[in-house]
Every structure is written in structure tokens, then in C-alpha cells.
Automatic annotation (TrEMBL):
Residues 132-317 form the PPIase cyclophilin-type domain. Pfam families: Pro_isomerase. It comes from the Eukaryota. This is Cyclophilin 12 putative (CYP12). GO terms for cellular component: cytoplasm. Signal peptide: none annotated. InterPro entries: Cyclophilin-like_dom_sf (IPR029000), Cyclophilin-type_PPIase_dom (IPR002130). GO terms for molecular function: peptidyl-prolyl cis-trans isomerase activity. CDD domains: cyclophilin.
Length: 322
């Protein structure tokens, strides 16, 4: 690059995006080869955090085109306060330096593989657990929600959520008027001493409070929100109130008063500080807030139950080390 003017950039992007991996390679090259001309810093984001950054830039009118507004990698020119897409940044670097991007198919596959590994390495380095849920509305798939769980803060609560996402067999101690009917329903509402599979899979979102939260996770028969069962027994104690309800996408345990956590959970739609020290929050939506928005958009009855059937069609746990 000609001249002695130092040009500073920040590359923001979703870690799992191949274009972000390519931009980080280009940034490393110019920082190493042209230190008098380039200073490029890297900001690695999970999808949720990047979406929030991008939304702020859109609201401020800082993104010039629809392509910028849709991009999962954005490069900020510190001097001009302008943003570029990954393609625009790479074109600039190739125009002004000896860096050359390899457009071959093999190289594209390599970037995809490296981006995926970078994502898994990033997750594994954090002291957290990760779960996912696929959601349908009236049998139509609306997408996947990814959760990150703050297991260092609330390990027992996080374990319960993971076990129910994975599916766990426990000895149920709830009596039932009809053991056979409950067993046929695949619920936890069975006779005392019966071992049964507890899982969020097949359960429903049973309550939507507009502009507040959505609720799901009753693993007992009917999935109405009036039951619930944990991997520890009928209920388990409040573990920690360290996580604040300070944003949309906070994940927490429903309860019927102190120390009555079971399986039902909520996802907030906005900051709800009045819930602090009353409900145990233990995670947040890491990706898939658009799915939560779709759930929230469903119409409700007078009792806040949804007019459509909203099902957790599948769910599971991600172990980044595997």
C-alpha cells in the first residue's frame, strides 16, 4: 500500500460465517505485512450479538445498502465511519496490497470447514453449555432457537434444562388417575415409582404474554403449563438470581413461588427488571430470536394461551468438543 497513512478497520462478523474467516485471514496478512498502512482489529460475535449490532447501525442510518443490512460480516472504516461488506473489504485489500484471495471451490470448502471449527473452538473456550430447539407453528417449521446456558452461575438449573433437551429417564413420583393414558401420552404424569422419559421434544408453548414473554416446557400430560417435572424430582430450589432480566431473549425458569422450579421455562421479549430475584434466569437466546418473534406473533385467547399449536418438534444439546 502506497503512502504512510495508517488506515484502521474493525471487522465485525458471525464467527461461523466463511466470509468472516476469509476477512480474518486478510486482516492478519495486512497487519503483518503492512503495519505502517493497515491496522485491522477483529470482533468475533455469536449471531445474536451481531444481529443486535447490525440493528443499531441500521437504526442509525449507517448501512448504505440492503446488501450491507443483510450481511453477516461488516467492516468498519474508523476514519470515515463507513461500513463495507466482506467482498468490498477483500477487494480493497487486494487492490492496495499483494494479498490475493483464492476463489477456487476447494478454497471455499476450506473456509467453510475452518469457520465451523472456529465456531466450535469459540464455544468450547467458554464456560457455558448450549442447547437447541426446532419449533413448528401448526405443523409449519419456523426455525431453530439456540440457547447458551450460564452453567458457571447456575449449574443445577442448566443441567436440568440440558437433560430435558436431551431426554432423560427418571423415576416419577406423581400419582395419576390414569397411568396407562399418561404413559401413552409419553408424559411425566405417571404412577409413583414409574421410570419415564422426560423430554421437551413434543411439548408446546402454552402461554404468550404480549410484549413480555413466551412460555413452554411443561413435560407432563397436556403440556398446559399447570404441571412440570425436573430431572431432580417434581421441583427443585431456586439456585441463583445473578442473571438479570435486562434484555430480550433471557431464558429462565417459570415457578409458582420460591423454590418451585420444574421444567417450564420462559423467554423474555424485552427487559423485565421486576422479575429479578423472583425468577431464576440461567441463559439467553444465542441465535434464533426471529423464531421467538414468530412465536410471540401468534394470536392468543383470553387466558394468554396461543390460538395456534406451537410445538418443540425436536431439541438437543451441543457439545463443542465432540
Amino acid at each position: 500500500m502506497s503512502g504512510d497513512v495508517l488506515t484502521s478497520f474493525t471487522v465485525y462478523g458471525v464467527i461461523a460465517a466463511p466470509a468472516f474467516q476469509q476477512c480474518t485471514d486478510a486482516a492478519a496478512y495486512v497487519n503483518r505485512t503492512y503495519p505502517e498502512s493497515y491496522a485491522v482489529s477483529i470482533q468475533r460475535d455469536v449471531p445474536r450479538d451481531f444481529d443486535e449490532r447490525r440493528a443499531q447501525w441500521i437504526a442509525a442510518g449507517q448501512l448504505a445498502t440492503d446488501e450491507h443490512a443483510r450481511s453477516d460480516v461488516l467492516v468498519h472504516n474508523v476514519a470515515t465511519n463507513a461500513f463495507m461488506t466482506a467482498a468490498e473489504f477483500l477487494a480493497l485489500v487486494m487492490l492496495t496490497t499483494h494479498y490475493r484471495a483464492d476463489p477456487s471451490t476447494d478454497n471455499a470448502e476450506s473456509y467453510r470447514a475452518r469457520a465451523q471449527q472456529s465456531w466450535l473452538d469459540f464455544l468450547a473456550a467458554r464456560d457455558r453449555q448450549y442447547c437447541w430447539m426446532d419449533v413448528t407453528v401448526d405443523d409449519v417449521a419456523v426455525g431453530r432457537v439456540w440457547f447458551e446456558l450460564f452453567s458457571a452461575v447456575a449449574p443445577l438449573t442448566c443441567k436440568n434444562f440440558c437433560e430435558l433437551c436431551r431426554g432423560t429417564s427418571v423415576e416419577v413420583t406423581l400419582p395419576s388417575a390414569s397411568t396407562s393414558a399418561a404413559a401413552e401420552a409419553g408424559s411425566a404424569d405417571q404412577a409413583a415409582g414409574t421410570r419415564t422419559l422426560l423430554t421437551y421434544k413434543g411439548t408446546t408453548f402454552f402461554r404468550i404474554l404480549k410484549d413480555a414473554w413466551v412460555m413452554a416446557g411443561d413435560v407432563t400430560a397436556g403440556h398446559s403449563g399447570n404441571g412440570g417435572y425436573s430431572c431432580y424430582g417434581r421441583t427443585f430450589p431456586d439456585e441463583s438470581f445473578a442473571v438479570a432480566h435486562d434484555a430480550a431473549g433471557v431464558l429462565g425458569m417459570c415457578n409458582d413461588g420460591p423454590h418451585t422450579n420444574s421444567s417450564s421455562f420462559y423467554i423474555t421479549r424485552r427487559p423485565l427488571s421486576w422479575m429479578d430475584r423472583k425468577y431464576v434466569a440461567f441463559g439467553r437466546v444465542m441465535d434464533g430470536m426471529s423464531v421467538v418473534d414468530a412465536i410471540h406473533a401468534v394470536g392468543v385467547k383470553h387466558n394468554q394461551s396461543p390460538l395456534a399449536t406451537i410445538v418443540i418438534a425436536d431439541c438437543g444439546v451441543l457439545d463443542p468438543s465432540e
